[in-house]
Amino acid sequence: MELDLTPKLPKQVYGGDGGSYFAWCPEELPMLKEGNIGAAKLALEQHGFAVPRYSDSPKVAYVLQGSGTAGIVLPEKEEKVIAIKEGDSIALPFGVVTWWFNSQETDLVILFLGETHKAHKRGQFTDFYLTGSNGIFTGFTPEFVGRAWDLDEGTVKKLVGSQTGKGIVKLDAGFKMPMPKSEDREGFVLNCLEAPLDVDIKDGGRVVVLNTKNLPLVGEVGFGADLVRIDAHSMCSPGFSCDSALQVTYIVAGSGRVQVVGADGKRVLETHIKAGSLFIVPRFFVVSKIADPEGMSWFSIVTTPDPIFTHLAGRTSVWKALSPEVLQAAFKVDPEVEQSFRSKRTSDAIFFPPSN
Question: Which residues contact 222 (CB under 8 A, 6 or more apart)?
Fold first, then answer.
């Protein structure tokens, strides 16, 4: 059966006055189920509040747009109230309870990528809401709720029945939410637009990698992530994950072309990609991208906490390591052609600006 790697846009799952929740569907993007990957997006309007919930999957959250407040409660820990803004990445392990709030006029948009190996449904997240019309209180009888929290019947009815919203609600403009604490960001958030660059190629591109060193919670979610930005017409070198990891890529901004090559030298994807689309590169498949005139940026997770990539162009590529005789025999070319091939791309760059 041929793999369908076509990039897809998400579909709205639910929403209301306060915002909407979108998700990528495994039926439309089969690699989600194949790779046990979940992908979703939360968009909150002004005063939109995503009520407290937990998930059946570990995730990485990336703030695509706007600013707001996040509440995070790790198991048996105190609540962290964090100011979030565009470029922030947050690792969300199993068992973490979160809520999200937008007080600003600009919509707050957050991307969620994660693994679904232990999820109820392969290829998609299932959230469990603590409040609202589909919250856990609604499933228990008033007797159980009253006994568990030592409440009288009247209080139980108010507690269970007052919030009729589902997942996302809109708060009154004057309602005061908890104020974020600057110290709460430490260890929970890494801003990929402000963090030290792991790769910086003049007129080529830049990379920030999330790993266990700069965001320790990455080790608990079990996979790493990165933000890549390439300049106009630049190319991201063909490469693959050499530790059997999947690459899940969301186009944050700009547009460009992508090619993916799999087994037997077969090109399995050749398409134009644009902001908002998501695609998945299978294990060991080789991928390369070229940006359009406005450049292109993407946020990816790789299904291992400290990913290792092999690039097939540049000074550190495998071609430079192989002996000349091996290349001559493998390509069936004379020494002159082999030397011409070897002498190109002598820098460590993984991004190549357009030739002048």
Answer: 58, 115, 303, 304, 305
Three-state SS string over 232-299 comes to CCCEEEEEEECCCCCEEEEEEEEEEEEEEECHHHCEEEEEEEECCCEEEECCCCEEEEEEEEEEEEEE
Q: What is the pLDDT along the chain (356 residues), one digit of tens a residue?
A: 577 899 999 999 999 899 999 999 999 999 999 899 999 999 999 999 999 999 999 999 999 999 999 999 998 899 999 999 999 999 999 889 999 999 999 999 999 999 999 999 999 999 999 999 999 999 999 999 999 999 999 999 999 999 999 999 999 999 999 999 999 998 899 999 999 998 898 888 999 999 888 998 888 898 889 999 999 999 998 888 776 678 899 999 999 999 999 999 999 999 999 999 999 998 889 999 999 999 999 999 987 766 667 777 766 677 788 898 998 999 999 999 988 887 776 665 577 777 65
Whole-angstrom distance, CA of residue 292 vs CA of residue 315: 25
* Residues found in the chain: 356
Could you give phi then psi for residue 353, rounded to 5 degrees?
Answer: -65, 160
Does this chain's domain 11-185 share its CATH topology with 189-352? Answer: yes
Structure-token pair, residue 71:
């509440």
What residues form DSSP beta bridges with 227?
A: 208, 299
User: E strand or H helix at 221, and its extent?
Assistant: helix 218-221
Superfamily of domain 189-352: Jelly Rolls (2.60.120.10)
Domain boundaries, the chain: 11-185, 189-352
Q: Coil, strand or helix: which one is 343?
A: helix
Q: What are phi and psi of 333, to 5 degrees?
A: -130, 165
Identify the H or E element spanning 208.
strand 205-210
CA distance 42 to 233: 31
Q: Which CATH superfamily is domain 11-185 in?
A: Jelly Rolls (2.60.120.10)
